[in-house]
Specification:
eight-stranded mixed β-sheet; Hypothetical Protein Pfu-838710-001; single chain; alpha+beta
């Protein structure tokens, strides 16, 4: 990334997050809320995936003061806690766009580019020698589902923890 002119903003750091279903009155299988401790700040986001294109990825994010208080707030308004997850992230910036290298437990590292527009993301891809047409626009559950041949329902609704310390929950272990 340095060769492309990107600047390292933040070396590899641990993030922890709790993911929630929306309250039952507004529950939608394509939407969820997340509280994430990024080490230097805590954010709360609502995310919605409406399709497989870049324009179909919707997110509204705010910064909050306290991880535990944000969790309590969501539970108080009727959100249901689904899972606790950890990731490691490295943050770079190039031409005003954020580029992250994300590490999720049990997956290969992945690259995420967030820009002001689809054209800005395409520009970064060109600058870095990446093929935009090969990009995936999805949540990480798609990657776990593809790699481990487990349903998204199993990942999203029956996997309570995804951490670097725990055993891989997507591998069936024999009882021997």
């Amino acid at each position: 990334m340095r060769k492309a002119g990107a600047k390292l903003i933040r070396p590899n750091f641990l993030q922890r997050r709790v993911v929630f279903n929306l309250p039952k009155e507004t529950k939608d299988k394509n939407s969820w809320i997340r509280v994430r401790d990024e080490g230097d700040k805590v954010t709360m986001s609502i995310k919605r995936i409406e399709g497989k294109k870049i324009k179909d990825q919707k997110e509204v994010c705010i910064t909050v003061d306290d991880f535990e208080q944000a969790k309590r707030f969501l539970i108080t308004i009727g959100c249901k806690e689904k899972s606790y997850q950890e990731t490691k992230r490295e943050l770079w910036v190039l031409r005003g766009s954020e580029i992250t290298i994300d590490e999720w437990p049990y997956l290969e590292p992945l690259l995420e580019i967030e820009g002001e527009s689809e054209e800005a993301v395409k520009d970064i891809c060109r600058k870095m020698g990446l093929n935009f047409k090969e990009a995936l626009f999805c949540a990480v559950d798609t990657l776990y589902s593809q790699k481990y041949k487990v349903s998204k329902d199993a990942i999203n609704n029956h996997t309570k923890r995804i951490t670097f310390q725990d055993k891989n929950p997507f591998i069936v272990r024999s009882m021997s």
